[in-house]
Amino acid sequence: MALQNRVTxxxxxxxxxARGLLMGNRGRLHDADRRIVRYAExxxxxxCLTSFRGRRRAVMxxxxxxxxxxxxxxxxxxxxxxxxxECRRDDYARFQAAWTRAGLGRASAxxxxxxxxxxxxxxxxxxxxxxxxxxxxxxxxxVEIAGDAWLVWGGALRRWSPxxxxxxxxxxxxxxxxxxxxxxxxxxxxxxxxxxHPTAD
Length: 201
Hints:
Elements: E1 6-7, E2 13-14, E3 22-25, E4 46-48, E5 68-70, H1 73-79, E6 82-83, H2 89-101, H3 109-120, E7 121-123, E8 126-127, E9 130-133, E10 142-145, E11 148-153, E12 156-161, E13 164-170, E14 175-178, H4 182-189
Helix pairs in contact: 2-4
């Protein structure tokens, strides 16, 4: 049976057999029976490689952080996670540089996590969305349309599903609800290129 550890662009956790390209965590969210009992623990939400230096973990071990999985990096960013400074050191450095170019303040892990936490949640388990014109959004940002999450990519929109991108639609000129936290949209706008699942192309 699939564990409830796959992250949607909205930051929710679902159970699915589909595999993701990145792993990450936001603290220990599961109990001894590997059931999700909390949404997050702390504000350090990161996105990691699924394989690093031969390390092996038993998923959702007792008294350990909850391993979460993302379709791709664009989903991880939309959910409010940033690159890990250890296993994704080069991506983390690129992310810090874009953060600085965007004028978001100090690019230390603590300061970035503090700003991210303020931008991703309006309250417990409540995402903080905002409106912006779709055509002004950078590649890698996610928007919500009629309850679905859509990736802005290559001048079009791609509808997210757990195992890949299913549909394509034009980017309209209307204002839309933006899922990706505002500071991360600015990081993307300042040159950080998020990796995406092959089905986006």
